[in-house]
Amino acid sequence: MLKVMSRKDYEQKKVPLDASVIEGKRHLTQDEIAVLEKNGNNCDDWNSVYVSNEPDGFDPRFISKCTFSGFIVIGRLGDNVISYHDLSLSTGIYFSTLEDVVVGDDCAIKNVRQLKNYRLGNRVILFNIQEMSCTYHSKFGEGLLMEGEDESSRIWIGVGNENENRAVLPFKDMIPADAYLWSRYREDSQLMDRFVELTEHGHSKKCDKFGIIEDDVVIKNSLLLKDVRVYPGAYIKGALKLKNITVLSSEKEPSQIGEGVELVNGILGYGSKVFYQAVAVRFIIGRNCQLKYGARLLNSILGDNSTVSCCELLNNLIFPFHEQHHNSSFLIASTIMGQSNIASAATIGSNHNSRSPDCEMVAGRGFWPGLCSDFKFDSKFASFVLAAKGSYNNELNVTYPFSLIAPCPKDGTVHIIPAYWFLYNMFAIVRNKYKFSARDKRLVKVQHIETNPLAPDTVQEIITSIDRLIHLTSSYLRLTKDEIDRCTQYNPKPELLEECRRKSNSATTKEELYYIAKDYLHQNSTSKFILVDEQCQKKYGALIYKPAQSYKEYRRVLKYFCIESLMAYVFEHNKESLTFDDVEELEKKPLYTEWENCGGQVIPRKKVEELFELVKGHGIEEWSQVHDFYDRCEENYIEYKARYALYILEKLYSKKILDFTETDYEKLLNDVAFVSMNMLESSIAVREKDYTDFFRSVTYRNQEEKNAVLGTLDGDGFLKKLRAATDDFETNLDKLFKNLRK
Fold first, then answer.
1. For the whole model, what pTM was predicted?
2. Which range among 21-25, 100-104, 226-230, 355-359 shows the weakest confidence by mean pLDDT?
3. Where are the beta strands (DSSP E) in 347-439?
4. DSSP string covering 390-414, please?
5. How do 49-52 and 25-27 pair as beta strands?
6. What is the pLDDT of residue 742?
7. Which pLDDT belongs to residue 717?
8. Which letter, b or e, does each residue of 278-316 get, where b requires 16 or more Cβ atoms within 10 Å of its Cβ?
9. Which of 53-67, 177-191, 717-731 has the lowest mean pLDDT?
10. What does the alpha-carbon distance between residue 595 and residue 602 come to, in Å, rounded to a whole number?
């Protein structure tokens, strides 16, 4: 409803001029006022205009056809030209309407129909803008409340679930780790209240806000900017609507907003770009991200180093290194833990199994659904699950990391090959290890990101999967002979099978049965049989293929992780070999066997619990202190991993490392060397197919053209780097235990 008030009442509602902004400024002279009026400018009160007091610091000739009201403060202004790319403008203010505005030095403002309640830094360009205003109660995208506002007006981001009961309050420095912890531990009401207090810490509730455009910002050809704060070096062109947002930017990490973009109620991270009709509402976009080509990001948080094109994302918490392209894919009500790739036509989140839209999905690192995949919610996936193309008609709980899953329409089951990536796709593991760190263009890395596929979060899943395979195998061994025949595809040791079946049927304890099954997997690693895991899919369960091979590969890569972690530990201490003193020192350190992927950083669960106690006990009062806690965890991460690695090795061999025999070391190093060489040889073999496959040549006139387009295998930069890294690893492998083997 329109409201009319007297000018006196209107002026009383406004924020008074801050005395600090008129330091070094003066009132206009009568001669300057005369020049301004001659140039077609008008003002309610010329005494409310302040200009630079520097010698020759203000030239009124460079203000033309403008309307001023309220207070106006103008910095240095002379006969200069300011340029950005192909746009060059005379510094000054032309054909614009300004109310309560502070202008820095050497700015160019032209064709701004309304500019109200803003403070501009130095060397700012505003060109062809319809409306640019700031309300006195603005929050710039943060989840704050001002004086007199009701709680219902607070901005929340409803991540993870459409019912918004996982919602978090956005704040300028929020990273995915903060959002993850806030969204997951909802049962702790005290913790939830303290997170709100941390968010509000240090913020004034007074309705005295003004918009800020910092140094070296360019905004041109845009329609509406309301309640916007823009940090230095940002470039905004052709935006349709920017409302209640913060654009984080710096000289070295400039952010950009392009044509047709609408951003409402959110925060854009440093070095990020939003282009070509993209829309984001209630959002946080992390550092070095891209949102483009009509993408729609609603009620979601997008982690650092992510790219989203064309598609739609609603109510998601997405960790760093997320890739989602193609016009037909979308993602709803999910927590995706990074290094993910959503394929074209993947419809994730449309198929609920509830009478209200309150179902959700959680997927570990490396989630990769195939073309045209769709899933029934609620579902959960371990890390690095590759889902084959198809419709998954029932809820899933895939606990096997690095697995391939595929639907079977014939009988409704889901088929799973655990450790598939290690068995058949090792190149992808190796490539992921290198590519993500290479793509990390952030100059300031607030959110720590684990990019190695083999890390404590995935390793604990592997350990759980090994245990699960053993338990399922114990059930297999107790089947009838006819049932075993139906489930067995290849068995090179029938006598061993019969012996283990006999022992299993006479076993009196679960522990005894467990070790019989474990022994069978150890001794018959080439056998092929099928296990049934009813926990992986509702109603129809899942069939587990190649469990013996998966079991063996899982154990091998566990050893590889252990060696890699212990190597990192000795390198950290400027050594090349473990000593008895190192082992003794490691054993004194706390052992963490449960880990969480917190926004991309892998943290021991006990440390997360320690953080919560600090927050609830007021040992932490603001989010910057939470981030300091993350930093301390990262500083100790190598030691945490080394202690965990020592524990795993001793568990695998059922003895202390100081009791390892020469045979133990030989087996350990052989297994690790096998994994290392397999990584290299598999990568070479996969890349070689790209160069030698017949159908890769059919589009080329001759080999020379093909080489010009594809390059050659010998010139592959990734393989060169991998060969060198493999040589270094094997050299260090030989040295790692030399002091312990004496």
1. 0.94
2. 355-359
3. 347-351, 361-363, 368-369, 374-381, 386-387, 391-398, 404-407, 414-417
4. SEEEEEEEE--TT-EEEE-TTTS-E
5. antiparallel
6. 67
7. 81
8. bbbbbbbbbbbbbbbbbbbbbbbbbbbbbbbbbbbbbbb
9. 717-731
10. 7
Instruction: For residues 710-724, give the mean pLDDT.
Output: 84
Backbone angles phi, psi at 555, to 5 degrees: -65, -40
Which among 299, 222, 214 is positioned nearest to 249, based on CA atoms? 214
- Say which DSSP state 277 is in: T
Which amino acid, one-letter code, is at 468? R
Please give the single-letter amino acid code of residue 341: N
SS3 state at 586: helix
Q: What is the pLDDT of residue 720?
A: 86
Handedness of CA 156, 157, 158, 160 (dihedral sign): negative
Q: Judge whether residue 71 has pLDDT over 70.
A: yes
What does the pLDDT read at residue 352?
A: 67
Handedness of CA 297, 303, 307, 311 (dihedral sign): negative
Q: What digits encode the pLDDT tens for the residues 405-440?
A: 999 999 999 999 999 999 998 888 888 888 898 889
| HSE toward the beta carbon, residue 400, CA cutoff 13 A | 32
Q: Indicate the helix (H) or strand (E) that contains 358.
A: none
Own/partner contacts of 725-734, CB < 8 Å, gap of 24 or more, are 726/676, 726/677, 726/679, 726/680, 729/564, 729/567, 729/676, 730/673, 730/676, 730/677, 732/567, 732/576, 733/563, 733/567, 733/669, 733/672, 733/673, 733/676, 734/669
The residue among 332, 38, 26, 338 whose CA lies nearest residue 177 is 338
CA angle at 524 for the pair 522 and 529, rounded to the nearest 5°: 115
* β-bridge mates for residue 335, sequence order: 317, 362
Tell me the average pLDDT across 584-600: 96
Rounded Cα distance between 682 and 697, Å, is 22
Q: How much of the chain is helix, strand and coil, in % rounded to 5? A: 35, 25, 40
Half-sphere exposure of 639 (CA within 13 A, CB side): 13
End-to-end CA distance of the chain: 87
pLDDT at residue 17, as a whole number: 80
Chain mean pLDDT for the chain: 94
CA 196 to chain centre: 22
DSSP β-ladder status, 307-309 and 87-90: unpaired
Tokens of 249: 């930017």
Q: What is the pLDDT of residue 368?
A: 95
In this prediction, residue 13 carries a pLDDT of 65
Rounded to a whole number of angstroms, the CA Rg of the chain reads 31
pLDDT > 90 in the chain, percent = 84
**Residue type present at position 367:** F
> How far is residue 647's CA from residue 192's CA, in Å, rounded to a whole number?
35
What pLDDT score does 438 carry? 87
Q: Cα 240 to the chain's mean position, in Å?
A: 27
Classify 616 in phi/psi space as left (phi over 0), alpha (psi -120 to 50) or beta: alpha
What is the phi/psi pair of residue 712, to 5°?
Answer: -120, 160
Q: Pick from 225, 537, 189: which is nearest to 380 by CA?
A: 537
Specify the pLDDT at position 10. 66
Statement: residue 730 has pLDDT above 80? yes
